[in-house]
TrEMBL record:
Belongs to the AccA family. It catalyses: N(6)-carboxybiotinyl-L-lysyl-[protein] + acetyl-CoA = N(6)-biotinyl-L-lysyl-[protein] + malonyl-CoA. Its EC number is 2.1.3.15. Component of the acetyl coenzyme A carboxylase (ACC) complex. First, biotin carboxylase catalyzes the carboxylation of biotin on its carrier protein (BCCP) and then the CO(2) group is transferred by the carboxyltransferase to acetyl-CoA to form malonyl-CoA. GO terms for molecular function: acetyl-CoA carboxylase activity; ATP binding; carboxyl- or carbamoyltransferase activity. The gene is accA. This is Acetyl-coenzyme A carboxylase carboxyl transferase subunit alpha. Keywords: ATP-binding, Cytoplasm, Fatty acid biosynthesis, Fatty acid metabolism, Ligase, Lipid biosynthesis, Lipid metabolism, Nucleotide-binding, Transferase. One of its GO terms (cellular component) is acetyl-CoA carboxylase complex. HAMAP family: AcetylCoA_CT_alpha. It is found in: Cytoplasm. It is an enzyme of class 2 (transferase). It holds the Pfam family ACCA. It comes from the Bacteria.
């Protein structure tokens, strides 16, 4: 008799929403620093927040895009287990956000555009991070980025989780890769809260509407960047090339606008984001 008879041995069906999440979290998917290394040249890292320390989950530095000097920011997640622990699995502490803001102010001083790359499930929620002002650091970045006097672009390359992502994404243009996600909470955490069962993660993923096409409909992102067939993890070079072309296009467009108009447009965009109206 076959060992595979009976429904008990069948793997549970994977929903379309959960399949997209698996692609966004694929082990071979390029991380932000991999995109930065392929798209930019002459990256020179800046360390420390000048207050507490140097968060290794966040990398900031000056670089060149086709010869133009820009500031790039990317969170680091790590590949090996040792590296993941060192980078805190890509979840920034408050000093990471303060380092990013310090570097953005340097970019503003020297009139250099700011480009951030985001792939994180959220800011680190640990006791130490909270004691050092995690919420204040996120709120400060949101405030200051809304009025930064240089062109700004952010790219969600994998997971864009909650305020941890938003603290690096209040920008003139918010881009998202085709299989990336933008959410207020992970599906597992949502399921644990709503259904008291983290195993309901697929149901939560369907209900949350966190995939790129869905957040684009809400106005949370400005463009979906196409990935190579079957996902960015299948061809890192092609994925970086597609993203690089999009960055060049958007940067040229926003640089052509007067800075006061750019800031007013940026602020108006975030005020209107995901608003719903009903007729009386």
């Amino acid at each position: 008799m076959s060992e595979h008879t009976g429904s008990a041995t069948q793997a549970p069906a994977v929903s379309a929403a959960w399949a997209r999440i698996e692609r966004a979290r694929h082990n071979e998917r390029p991380y932000p620093m991999e995109f930065i290394e392929r798209i930019f040249t002459d990256f020179s890292e800046i360390h420390g927040d000048r207050a507490f320390g140097d968060d290794e989950a966040v990398a900031c530095g000056m670089a060149r895009l086709d010869g133009e000097e820009v500031l790039v920011i990317g969170n680091r997640k790590g590949g090996t287990t040792k590296e993941k622990v060192r980078r805190n699995f890509g979840m920034p502490h408050p000093e990471g956000y303060r380092k990013a803001l310090r570097c953005m102010r340097i970019a503003e001083k020297f009139n250099r555009p700011v480009i951030s790359f985001i792939d994180l499930p959220g800011a680190f929620p640990g006791l130490g991070a909270e004691e050092r002002g995690q919420a204040e650091a996120i709120a400060r970045n949101i405030l200051e980025m809304s009025r930064l006097r240089v062109p700004t672009i952010s790219v969600i390359t994998g997971e864009g989780g909650s305020g941890g992502a938003l603290a690096l994404a209040v920008t003139d243009r918010v881009l998202i890769l085709e299989n990336a996600l933008y959410f207020v909470i992970t599906p597992e955490s949502c399921a644990a809260i709503m259904w008291r069962d983290a195993n309901q993660k697929q149901l939560a993923a369907e209900a949350m509407r966190i995939a790129a096409p869905e957040v684009a409909k809400l106005g949370c992102v400005d463009e979906i960047i196409r990935e190579p067939q079957d996902g960015a993890h299948t061809d890192h070079e092609a994925a970086a090339s597609l993203l690089g072309d999009a960055l060049r296009k958007h940067l040229a467009e926003i640089k052509a606008q007067p800075i006061d108009q750019l800031i007013a447009t940026r602020q108006a965009k975030f005020r209107k984001m995901a608003q719903f109206y009903t007729e009386g």
